[in-house]
Amino acid sequence: MKVGFIGLGIMGRPCVLNLLKAGHAVTVWARRRESAEDLLAAGASWADSPAALAGEVELVITNVPNTGDVENVLLGDNGVVHGARPGLVCADMSTISPIGARRIAESLAEHGVDFLDCPVSGGEVGAINATLSIMVGGKAEALEKARPALAAMSKSITRIGDSGAGQVAKACNQIAVGATILGVAEVVKLARACGVDPAPVRQALMGGFAASTVLDIHGQRMIDDNFAPGFKAVLHKKDMGIVLETARELGIKLPESAHIAELIDRLIERGDGELDSSAIARLVWEDN
């Protein structure tokens, strides 16, 4: 199908390559054309604006940093809405606020455009290997239109509910990932304090009930003390901000989420915001 892609960063770039590999015709836009040169060489086409891109495709996919960025590329000057034809589907793979997602969906609906909030889990590795887990909020019919393209980037696609529901699921995901990172960090800390090599401990746990993707990937990062980013701490900070903001609006307490956010803030304050967010393990090891 004809797909437009906006947002060519650490996640977007491999997603475009997987769409091309699957045979989709992909048109891209970025603020700097030079950032897209390798994708153009791989077979993608270039559009001069989000509006121009929208006029050429059946599906627009966005993957940008925050709610304001999504609103800008979809609804702002020269945004997608200004070139969209009725029936266009916009699938946003960014992590934004559920309330923002609902607001964007309502604005696009006024122009005959369907919006899917499609945040993902799996990080850079999942984007490269086309094994992302996609959580979808929006109309089932719009999802079916977008499914061929989404399937080229993922191993699972789950419709959670109406607009905003995908973002709710992503917020829940970020809580679970953060809390599990803390648990694995304590596993490594305890093993070392006991004079035991954490590597075989991790290996043993991966064969039992404690096995998880976090233990597998981030556990190895911790053993190697190698926190080259798959998902930067500064981005996890933004996501945990969405979690806590949503909790405040609902009048509920999420103490573990607050603890995760506090550790990420400390990591960033000491200049390590560009590291993978699992680097909060270093703070766990330092705290007694």
From TrEMBL:
Residues 2-161 form the 6-phosphogluconate dehydrogenase NADP-binding domain. GO terms for molecular function: NAD binding; NADP binding; oxidoreductase activity. Keywords: NAD, Oxidoreductase. Residues 164-283 form the 3-hydroxyisobutyrate dehydrogenase-like NAD-binding domain. The active site is at K170. The keyword NAD applies. PANTHER family: 3-HYDROXYISOBUTYRATE DEHYDROGENASE-LIKE 1, MITOCHONDRIAL-RELATED. This is 2-hydroxy-3-oxopropionate reductase. It comes from Crenobacter luteus.
